Amino acid sequence: MRNPPEHQNPLQGMALMAGAMFVLPAMDAIAKYMATFEGMSPGQVTFYRFFFQLVCTLPFLFAIFGRNALRAKRPWMNLLRGALHGAASLLFFVAVKYMPLADVFAIYFVEPFMLTALSALFLGDKVGWRRWTAIAVGFGGAMIVIQPSYEIFGLKALLPVFCAFLYSLYLFLNRAIGDADSPLTMQTMAGIGGTAFMAVALVAGNGLGISDFHPSLPSSSLGLILLLILGTISGYAHMIIVRAFRLAPLSLLAPFQYFEIISATVLGYALFGDFPNFSKWIGILIIVASGLFIIWRERVQARSLKTS
């Protein structure tokens, strides 16, 4: 399940991962906007997220692979990826409906630690003490950003933790599948899995009378455009992530997910007036510093290998 050494390019993988992490919070800002200003339930937004992801990626898949487009070598694992991603996205979108974006991301950032542990235990990735320390420092920065969210939001403050666990399993499967299928095939199959999962969840949740699963159509042309953008970002940003995980180990890329807090903070302030206080800015600086340290360590190790 591990990539062969000749396929590894850690620096390129880190660059792709960092870029994707700056873009992805736009999805969560759209989800919060749809819930806050358009009155759409998080369950419905999550369904549209995967449906429009499928709409965006499926034509390209057929154009490239023709009739064999959906003949994935590992279809059930890819569908499982989609279901896990659907469940994780649902929990996250419910959380951002009620909580500031920066707070949700801060709690969610237990995920890189979970992912690193999974890669070390099941994929045999070597995680040295410096990398563990950098991840721990970044996690500490996230804890500074959190502050006592549980006292304010109650059990909803735990939703990002469960989201983090499901998403770490999703990323773990990205690496476990390896090069069996193309990134475009993987994302299209994940779109099918996520759409199917959310269709069932939406029907079940609405049947139980849960307001966060109320089905609805976009109430404005702006809402429809935002949902299309949501699906586009979902499909193609995650293809970049799939590519990144083929170029570098999970444990190396995990800390770069901390970079999401930067764009999440900017979007949260610009759209919803959620501006972090001084202690949160300190936490954000610690998070960024931990990721930059990982980049520096990788470059040092790359130079030492070339000279040895």
Describe the structure.
The protein starts with 9 loop residues before the first helix and ends with a helix. It contains 14 helices and no strands. The chain is 77% helix and 0% strand. Helix 1 runs antiparallel to helix 11. It has 308 residues and is mostly helical. It has helices at 10-23, 25-37, 42-65, 75-98, 101-108, 111-122, 129-146, 149-153, 159-177, 183-207, 221-247, 250-253, 260-272, 278-307.
Compressed to H and E, one letter per element, the order equals HHHHHHHHHHHHHH
Q: What amount of the residues lies in strands?
A: under 5%
Structural class of the secondary elements? mainly alpha
- Total beta-strand segments: 0
Describe the protein's topology.
Layout (H helix, E strand, L loop, with lengths): L9 H14 L1 H13 L4 H24 L9 H24 L2 H8 L2 H12 L6 H18 L2 H5 L5 H19 L5 H25 L13 H27 L2 H4 L6 H13 L5 H30 L1
Helix pairs in contact: 1-11, 2-4, 2-11, 2-13, 3-4, 3-10, 3-11, 4-9, 4-10, 5-7, 5-9, 5-13, 6-9, 7-14, 10-11
Task: Provide keyphrases for this structure.
14 helices, 308 residues, disordered N terminus, mainly alpha, single chain
Short description:
It is built from 14 helices and no strands. The chain has about 300 residues and is mostly helical. Helix 2 packs across helix 4, helix 3 (about 40-65) packs antiparallel against helix 4 and helix 3 (about 40-65) crosses helix 11 (about 220-245).
